[in-house]
């Protein structure tokens, strides 16, 4: 019997509901499989924890997590209307991303059969894109400050920091991923026409890395027109590699195009496994839905599926993905975001049955 | 007879074709009106000029332009496949925006009757949004550099610089615009959850400025989920105010949602009129279409319409807007981007007839 050790963060808002759903599905999967079990340790670090302690996690939170020897982290959404977002996010999620060097944020965006896209005729040209987002520096380096605060002459500076090592590794990851998963095109998302320091550098590194992958075709798209391309010609987008901020923006757009924020998963990866990777739905904490048992758990469940794939549990990952696809295609059980009236519980049970 | 002095830059790619079309329409408008004439001085500063001289414009280009006493600048798209984009853009357009303190980039995004949006059912909820984009600093401040160039330890830094004076003025502009044009909602586009210096500052200024406009409702949207909102609930978006980069990205998305990049206009405004403002289609130079007489001239013509409105030529502006709407709604004359086979010339003539 193989044990997979998980650190589980229900976190904020609808987090506890969708994380419980994901755990239920994982345990059911383990039961059916027989050879694997999930050992989950729950952490209450969250906005509620902040209200009690004045911190999102203990000062030695990263060390505690590291000492736990976890194979992965499952996390609910972070953020609360009662606390400024930069406090909650830098207090937990962004610190873990950076601290555990989760330098790839992998975000598949696929329009599943049975889901209605806001686009006209999307099924004529199936939407299936993969965002490989740099996840450890760039616009999220956190570098900057303010001077003359509150005065007429105030200046606020946020510095975007790109380093060659980090830029190269995420691009290599993108090309390796494309090659391993049979993708033919890697699109470089840039803005080097106006951002003449960081993005010109980014383009140079892209060219240099691409030269090592002659079998993978490449193209380049400005981030602004990339939004237009995703909307007007989504079928031309395959894998794209983007900076931290650009990946953030484009993956929300991609999620919307694939029908619901309630379906979009993400994987924050430390590919070398020096640290645990973190899996999380990309939707927010949606305080308005809390306790109503209506949140779509599939984004979180799909994130757990990405975890299984990353951990090399291919059989489990494949089985879970088909279950998700079956439930969605079937359309009988649908949470409100997908146009139905089913509950979180019903959706979770439907996935368990489909396993 | 009133004379309006225009500096005209055909610029790159399809620029000469769409700029000629715009001039033709303006002259026809003047003819019909009787009391106004347009005096156009053409400037050949462009990528072609760069190939001849090694510069996009003369070293004293801004001074020359200022000395010309122009009421406005009409410009074609800038950029050429043969020259790195940051050279062409910083050599001309971005330098003029900054040099002439064109601190507002006004971008109406309206789905005209007769145009097919890539969205399902967009006419059920008409799309009509206005992007007020900060246009003089922020992510486009141009500040930064690179160290250890080409070496493994290379670092590239691009600093985002927000100043209070500039942030306040664009927000005041947004609220004044909303009030004057009967808009009820101004959305603050932010990313203060991850960008804790510049965007937290931005949000503070937004709150402070908003307090002076109690009659205008406000809300706040993260730039990433703003893309989802624009796609899934475009009818909830009215006026939004965004940083230079965020406005750039969201206005391309908005243009795509309103059916064609060939329709989207922009106005780079110095509201105080210390310097001439600049009007330009938001599409690119599209070298693939050059000389084929197929480019849609309407984005450029609509930009000229924004110019008339800005110059206070309300009657001319209204007349031109109805002509554009008539031609588009009529659908008999449509360039390929709108699904037709008409030429640039035919489209331009149709607008002249509709005047
Ligand atoms: C919550 C926020 C800081 C985060 C981000 O911007 O990375 C989220 O939008 C995401 O995409 O995971
Ligand atoms: C050409 C480019 C520098 C420009 C910008 O990014 O501002 C364009 O995309 C625009 O939106 O006007």
TrEMBL record, chains A, B:
NCBIfam families: TTC. Pfam families: Iso_dh (PF00180). Its EC number is 1.1.1.83. The keyword Oxidoreductase applies. Keywords: Manganese, Metal-binding, NAD, Oxidoreductase. It catalyses: (R)-malate + NAD(+) = pyruvate + CO2 + NADH. Its cofactor is Mn(2+); Mg(2+). It comes from Hymenobacter algoricola. The keyword Methyltransferase does not apply. Gene3D superfamilies: Isopropylmalate Dehydrogenase. Residues 5-351 form the Isopropylmalate dehydrogenase-like domain. InterPro entries: ICDH/IPMDH, IsoCit/isopropylmalate_DH_CS, IsoPropMal-DH-like_dom, TTC_DH. Belongs to the isocitrate and isopropylmalate dehydrogenases family. SUPFAM superfamilies: Isocitrate/Isopropylmalate dehydrogenase-like. PANTHER family: D-MALATE DEHYDROGENASE [DECARBOXYLATING] (PTHR43275). This is D-malate dehydrogenase (decarboxylating).
């Amino acid at each position: 019997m193989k044990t997979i050790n998980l650190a589980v963060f229900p976190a904020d808002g609808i987090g506890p509901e969708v994380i419980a759903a994901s755990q239920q599905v994982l345990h059911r999967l383990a039961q059916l499989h027989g050879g694997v079990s999930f050992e989950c340790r729950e952490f209450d670090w969250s906005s509620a924890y902040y209200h009690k302690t004045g911190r999102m996690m203990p000062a030695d939170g990263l060390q505690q997590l590291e000492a736990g020897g976890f194979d992965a982290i499952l996390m609910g959404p972070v953020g609360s209307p009662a606390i400024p977002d930069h406090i909650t996010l830098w207090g937990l999620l962004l610190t873990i991303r950076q601290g555990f060097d989760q330098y790839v944020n992998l975000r598949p965006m696929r329009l599943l059969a049975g889901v209605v896209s806001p686009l006209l005729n999307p099924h004529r040209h199936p939407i299936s894109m993969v965002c490989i987002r740099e996840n450890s520096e760039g616009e999220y380096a956190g570098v900057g400050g303010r001077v003359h605060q509150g005065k007429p002459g105030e200046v606020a500076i946020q510095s975007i920091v790109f380093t060659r090592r980090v830029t190269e590794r995420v691009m290599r990851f993108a090309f390796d991923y494309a090659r391993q998963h049979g993708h033919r095109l890697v699109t470089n998302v840039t803005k080097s026409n106006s951002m003449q320091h960081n993005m010109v550098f980014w383009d140079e590194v892209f060219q240099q890395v691409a030269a090592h992958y002659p079998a993978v075709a490449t193209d380049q798209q400005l981030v602004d027109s990339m939004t237009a391309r995703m909307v007007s010609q989504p079928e031309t987008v395959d894998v794209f590699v983007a900076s931290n901020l650009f990946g953030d923006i484009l993956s929300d757009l991609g999620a919307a195009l694939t029908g619901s924020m309630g379906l979009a998963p993400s994987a924050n990866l430390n590919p070398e496994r020096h640290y645990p990777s973190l899996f999380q739905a990309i939707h927010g904490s949606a305080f308005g839905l809390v306790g109503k048992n209506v949140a779509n758990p599939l984004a979180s469940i799909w994130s757990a599926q990405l975890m299984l794939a990353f951990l090399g549990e291919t059989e489990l990952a494949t089985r879970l993905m088909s279950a998700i696809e079956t439930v969605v295609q079937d359309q009988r059980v649908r949470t409100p975001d997908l146009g139905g009236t089913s509950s979180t519980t019903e959706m979770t049970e439907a996935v368990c049955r489909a396993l």
